[in-house]
Design goal:
Distance between the termini: 81 Å
Shape: rod-shaped
Number of domains: 3
Strand content: 5-15%
CATH topology of the largest domain: Beta-Lactamase
Largest sheet: 5 strands, mixed
Order of helices and strands: HHEEHEEHHHHHHEHEEHHEEH
Radius of gyration: 59 Å
Helix content: 55-70%
Structural class: alpha+beta
């Protein structure tokens, strides 16, 4: 039910109450008037007839009949004369006032109350005096009918006028409802015109401000969604690039190990054979051969370091724990005075290749930063694996500061963060007091996926063999 109809029904109810009160007052006033008139006329007629016994004494029933006939009709009363045997001798003539018309019975019952007939006893016979309010009731009805028509006309016209005025007054509300429906359908650019009246202007201004806020919020959500999708695509692309880089690094590392390693070994073997053959015969050639062997050893060490940087072969052959230990072993060789500690717990074997590579690379970058830039004397590395997650902590006691690591020209931290976020993990940097940096990485682990990948890789290996 619309607000317009609700208000109109309320006004209609109030008008009905007012009309009912008005008609009720009119009926009550008519009731009192009828009663007073009938009662007064009945008292006068009763007193008049009670004092005419002299007529009966002079001429009997004939004289009384002649007297009543001469008196005629007494207002608002019916006079009846009965003989000694109860026979009807005389009845007063009907009223000629508004003859042939009667008030409705329901109205007559409302405004007139029946009065008890009065008997006037004669020596032979009796006179019955009965009050007759019909004419007074008819007068009241005639007075009420114009009022009823006026009330009915006022009711109809008033309702029509109220309905029309309410339609004009509620027009701003219909515009607001229409605007809300359009916004519900997604038309956030909907605006209301300046509505009439002080309240209307406030409603239109409030609606337009709300619509602008909703439109801005929808635009911001769309932009945020687009940015989120773009970020997800960028991370996926980054992960693909990193996986491709790792593949290329692995291929180059295997080529260096297989091809260049064999060539360096062959050179060293040839130098050793030459040195042995000319030993004691040609010292210059022997020294040259020994020099070739030393150069071969240096090339081999350099190639080994380069292979470790490109792709740790231990990660592919022996798993993450051995690869981390091997990496720390290389650092201990080049930094014997550095306190390096690695602690691992949980099931680290059989992790997904991308996950294991990310842990290895993040640890490699974090320790390299501490060694090169922070001048740390101690680095503690902790790796904890559970059924659903893996956490890597690298803590050093160097002089590095967060603001230096987060500088725009420092690419190590963004690279570690991108690796972690690309796998759905988190990356945190904390300042350690009195000195040092704490790097914490959390990565999700899906053991089922890892097992399937291991199984697939094993099947491929068997098929290839």
């Amino acid at each position: 039910m619309s607000l317009r109809l609700q208000i109109n029904l309320i006004v209609t109810a109030l008008m009905l109450v007012f009309a009912s009160v008005l008609v009720g007052l009119q009926i009550d006033d008519t009731r009192r008037s009828v009663y007073e008139e009938v009662m007064g006329a009945n008292v006068v007629a009763s007193q008049l007839l009670s004092r005419v016994n002299w007529v009966y004494d002079a001429s009997g029933l004939v004289g009384m009949t002649d007297y009543l006939t001469r008196v005629g009709r007494v207002r608002a009363n019916e006079i009846t004369l009965y003989g000694g045997q109860g026979e009807l001798i005389y009845r007063s003539p009907p009223s000629t006032y508004k003859v042939g018309r009667e008030a409705p019975q329901w109205y007559a019952r409302l405004v007139s109350s029946p009065l008890t007939p009065k008997d006037i006893t004669l020596p032979i016979g009796r006179i019955v005096l009965q009050a007759d309010p019909s004419r007074a009731t008819l007068d009241g009805w005639d007075n009420l009918r114009p009022l009823l028509w006026m009330v009915f006309a006022g009711f109809v016209l008033g309702n029509g006028l109220v309905y029309a005025l309410l339609g004009r007054a509620t027009r701003p509300l219909r515009l607001v409802v229409h605007g809300l429906r359009r916004m519900e359908q997604g038309a956030y650019d909907t605006r209301l015109p300046a509505l009439s009246g002080h309240e209307g202007r406030q409603i239109s201004h409030a609606f337009n401000r709300m619509a602008q806020s909703v439109q801005d919020a929808a635009l911001a959500r769309r932009q945020a969604l687009e940015a989120t999708q773009a970020l997800a695509q960028n991370r996926e692309f980054t992960q693909i690039i990193q996986a491709r880089i790792e593949q290329e690094r692995g291929a180059i590392a295997r080529e260096l190990h297989d091809e260049l390693g064999q060539q360096v070994t062959a050179i060293k073997s040839a130098g050793l054979a030459i040195a042995r053959r000319v030993a004691g015969n040609d010292a210059l050639i022997e020294r040259s051969a020994r020099l070739v062997m030393d150069c071969a050893d240096q090339i081999y060490d350099g190639v080994h370091r380069l292979i470790s940087q490109l792709r740790p072969l231990a990660l592919d052959r022996f798993g993450l724990p051995d690869a981390l230990q091997d990496l720390l072993g290389d650092w201990r060789v080049y930094h014997p005075d550095m306190g390096l500690k690695l602690s691992t717990s949980g099931e680290l074997d059989g992790l997904e290749g991308a996950l294991a590579t990310a842990v290895y690379r993040i640890m490699q970058e974090a320790v390299n930063n501490a060694l090169r830039h922070a001048q740390a004397s101690r680095i503690d590395v902790t790796v904890v694996a559970t059924a659903t997650s893996l956490q890597l902590d690298v803590v050093d006691n160097g002089r590095g500061r967060l603001e230096d690591l987060q500088a725009t020209d420092h690419f190590g931290v963004p690279g570690m963060r991108e690796r972690a976020q690309a796998l759905g993990g988190s990356f945190e940097l904390k300042q350690v007091e009195p000195a040092g940096i704490h790097i914490r990485v959390r990565l999700p682990v899906n053991r089922d996926v890892n097992r399937q990948q291991e199984k697939g890789g094993s099947n491929e290996s068997h098929a290839g063999g």
